[in-house]
């Protein structure tokens, strides 16, 4: 049964009920929706109303449900009146008859109506994990743009589009938006851009659209989509009622076409990189959630940690290289993914239990996201005074409360990977200046992985380091880094790790994608320039073909 949604008010005045129902008598003014999980709004005509008596409904256009209604199936009437959305309580048909080629049914007159204001209270926001694609088309010859639906109302929607779409939003001329739900349902509707905000760090633009003169059928579909988004969001929330059934809109077709979305049209260097981009998309969305003062989504964090474990079990070398192919993602996302994958790969050698590995991966993915709550000016500073440094170190304390709903994360793992990864053995780290025996074994491992990944990427005050220079730094600071884990890291990943860009004796450049038992490149993919891996990579070489390049002579540092 559909439950009353927050924001509805109950109208019991007979004159008000009669007035509102009168609006439903207009052609296209009413829809009938069965009270079932897969119920959709269907066109119906309110042919007559007798206050206190009955409603006469013309269901000629939906004869296929006459049998179900005749057997007592409950339904609601939906519609709009005076800028409000309204619906009846659940009703049943008392009689259905054919008359003059029309199918006419009667139902009891409703004793009350539920009314919802159309605007703010009716805006349905998609939660993390609810993915609805959108295709934006213009009247010109430009190619269409794919994006993601973020919220929907009867009057408009908000989309997240690739940064390159910003120029299209400058014109007030209407565009066509096609909403694409996971189960294959689609709605094409005209809309005018009203506002947009560019986010250069995330390479995205958030745009608000107002629908242009939707017809009755489009409004019926919008009503249904908004209602289902709200219902699915309620089901997925931390306080969700377990009795709520999943919305069929969000049940993906088993063999459907590739999903529509902002990331799905982007080219990635490898198939594994495209799959890893799904996890990156979650972290990217989580950055916005944190900036809007929301907590980390415990369910989605669990799902994406499982996804990362599955990708690693399937192809560890492919996943390691994929972490170098996320150039379109925010720096915090790229760093979190790289730390998570390399930490997992190194820890897996020791036979760590799966539940601990999952918690470790989850914590590693998000360990730096608290920096999203700091000012951009602070993050981009090339020199920091004492006060600025203290402000930067606050990212740990800012993130910790946002993890409180993630009850499935072991407290010890959160402490080791999130709270203490920036500590150092000699007490020179932050946030608490802990030292020596107060630092857990997992912390000692995580701080090595985190430091390697940080030094291999550009920072405002310096460019990316070569791997050899990173190793030299770690080995020369035994007071800060546990040398057992430094040496294990070097032995495990090698002097030219997967994801390194190498120049060979013949002058060719190639990305290392696999190593032999000696830790030397066994499989590389050629590239023409020293930039992060993208769609323009060349041939993959191994064996005799790789030998023709000669031995590797140098690593070329590239911030990925």
TrEMBL record:
Residues in HD-GYP domain copies: 310-505
A family per Pfam: PilZ
PROSITE patterns (UniProt xref): HD_GYP
SUPFAM superfamilies assigned to the protein according to its UniProt record, in alphabetical order: HD-domain/PDEase-like (SSF109604)
Record CDD domains: HDc
GO molecular function: cyclic-di-GMP binding; phosphoric diester hydrolase activity
Keywords: Hydrolase
Protein name stated in the entry: Phosphohydrolase
UniProt organism field: Halomonas heilongjiangensis
């Amino acid at each position: 049964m559909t439950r009353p949604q927050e924001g509805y008010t109950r109208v019991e005045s007979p004159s008000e009920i009669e007035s509102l129902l009168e609006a439903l008598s207009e052609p296209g003014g009413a829809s009938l929706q069965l009270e079932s999980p897969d119920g959709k709004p269907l066109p119906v005509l309110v042919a007559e109303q007798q206050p206190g008596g009955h409603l006469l409904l013309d269901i000629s256009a939906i004869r296929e449900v006459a049998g179900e209604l005749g057997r007592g199936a409950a339904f609601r009437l939906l519609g709009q009146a005076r800028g409000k959305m309204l619906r009846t309580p659940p009703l049943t048909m008392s009689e259905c008859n054919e008359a003059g080629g029309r199918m006419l049914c009667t139902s009891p007159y409703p004793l009350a109506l539920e009314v919802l204001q159309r605007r703010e209270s009716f805006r349905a926001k998609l939660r993390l994990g609810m993915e609805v694609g959108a295709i934006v088309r213009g009247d010109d010859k430009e190619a269409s743009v794919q994006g993601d639906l973020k919220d929907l109302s009867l009057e408009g929607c908000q989309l997240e589009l690739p940064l390159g779409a910003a120029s299209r939003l400058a014109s007030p001329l209407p565009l066509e938006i096609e909403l694409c739900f996971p189960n294959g349902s689609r709605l094409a509707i005209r809309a005018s851009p009203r506002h947009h905000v560019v986010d250069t760090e995330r390479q995205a633009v958030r745009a608000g659209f107002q629908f242009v003169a939707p017809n009755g059928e489009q409004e019926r579909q919008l009503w249904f989509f908004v209602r289902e988004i709200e219902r699915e969001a309620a089901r997925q929330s931390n306080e969700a009622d377990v009795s709520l059934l999943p919305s069929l809109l969000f049940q993906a077709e088993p063999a459907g076409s590739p999903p529509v979305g902002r990331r799905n049209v982007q080219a990635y260097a490898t198939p594994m990189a495209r799959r890893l981009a799904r996890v990156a998309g979650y972290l990217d969305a989580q950055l916005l959630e944190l900036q809007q003062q929301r907590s980390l989504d415990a369910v989605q964090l669990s799902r994406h940690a499982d996804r990362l474990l599955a990708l690693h079990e399937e192809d560890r070398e492919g996943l390691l290289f994929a972490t170098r192919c996320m150039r379109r993602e925010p720096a915090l996302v790229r760093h979190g993914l790289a730390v998570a994958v390399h930490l997992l790969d190194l820890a897996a050698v020791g036979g760590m239990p799966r539940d601990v590995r999952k918690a470790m991966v989850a914590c590693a993915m998000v360990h730096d996201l608290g920096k999203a709550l700091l000012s951009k000016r602070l993050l981009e500073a090339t020199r920091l005074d004492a006060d600025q440094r203290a402000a930067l170190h606050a990212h740990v304390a800012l993130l910790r409360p946002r993890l409180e709903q993630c009850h499935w994360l072991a407290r010890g793992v959160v402490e080791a990977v999130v709270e203490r990864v920036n500590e150092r053995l000699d007490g020179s780290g932050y946030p608490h200046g802990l030292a020596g025996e107060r630092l857990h074994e997992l912390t000692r491992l995580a701080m090595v992985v985190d430091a390697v990944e940080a030094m291999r990427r550009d920072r405002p005050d310096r460019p990316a380091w070569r791997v050899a220079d990173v190793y030299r730094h770690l080995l020369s600071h035994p007071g800060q880094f546990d040398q057992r884990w430094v040496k294990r890291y070097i032995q495990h990943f090698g002097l030219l790790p997967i994801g390194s860009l190498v120049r060979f004796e013949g002058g060719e450049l190639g990305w290392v994608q696999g190593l032999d038992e000696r830790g030397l490149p066994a499989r590389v993919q050629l590239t023409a320039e020293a930039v992060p891996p993208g769609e323009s990579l060349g041939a993959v070489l191994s064996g005799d073909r790789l030998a023709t390049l000669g031995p590797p002579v140098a690593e070329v540092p590239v911030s990925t």
